[in-house]
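Feature request, filed as a ticket because there's no other form

It would be nice if the structure record came with a short human-readable summary line next to the C-alpha cells. Right now we just get the raw output. Example of a typical job, pasted below so the devs can see what we mean:
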Amino acid sequence: MQPIKRIASLLALFSFTSINCQETIAQATVLVCYGDVNPDKIRGYKYVILESEHYNPFDVKLLQENNELVLGYISMGEVSPSRFYFESIREKTVGKNPIWDSYYLDLEDSTTQAAIVGFVDKIKGKGFDGVFLDTVDVYGPWGPQAKQEAAYAKLIKFIKEKYPDFHLMQNAGLEIVARVKNEINSIAIESVITNYNFNRDQYKMRKSRETQEKAIELSTINERYGLPIILIEYADSRSRFNKVKTQAINLKWDYFIGNIGLESLPKFK
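Raw output as currently delivered:
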C-alpha cells in the first residue's frame, strides 16, 4: 500500500467512535513473556519473545517447532543487577533508572561492549532465531545516553555482521531507525493504543488522537524502510483487552496484549 493511501486509511479508522470486533478472532500473533513458562504451552505465534536464561537448547527447539520466530530478550540501554554480567560492568554504568532498578550502560566502553556481545553469543548458542533489543530509547534524542547513538548503531552493525541471519527486533528508538535500517529486521513499539501510568500503577487507554498520530508515524517508517511493525500493549481486564484488540486488529500489524511486567502468560479478569 502506498504511504498516502495507508495514512488515509488510518485517518478513516480513527474517524469512527465504534469499530466492529468479533470475539472469535484468533490469538495474537506475538507473545512477550519474561517469566519461566513451560515451552510446550507456547504455540502458534509468529514472534515469541522470551527471557533466554530460562530455557535450554532443547526448549528452544521445541518452541521453534510450534512457532515461527523465537527471540531472546536483551537490554541494550540498561542492565539489571540480576543479570549475570552485571558485576563485570558495574563500575562502567552511568546512572540508575529507578522505575526498573536498573543501570544505564556506557556503550562506548569496551568491557560493556564485550558483555553485550557475549550475551548475544550465549543466546545464539542456545539456538534462538534472534534477539529483542530493548531500552533503545535511552540513545534517542531525549534519552539519558543520547550522545551514544552512534555507539549503539556501531554495536548493532557488529552483531549483524557476526550473525547475518540473526533476526534483530528493535523495541522503539524510532528516531534511530534510519541509522540501523540495514541491520534490524523489525520494529516493536509499546503503548501505541494503551498508556500505563507507572506512578499510579494504573492501566489506561490513549486518546484516539495520540494513537492516530503514532500509527501514522509507524506507517511512514514501515513504508520507507520495509520493516515490519509489532505492537506491544497492556491491559488488566477483559473489557480493556477487547478494546485494545479492536484497535490492534484494525491497524493490521502483528500485536501482543499482556499485563505490565510481562512475568507470566497474559491473564485478564
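Something like this underneath would help us a lot:
The longest strand covers residues 69-75.
Residues 53 and 202 are 29 Å apart (CA to CA).
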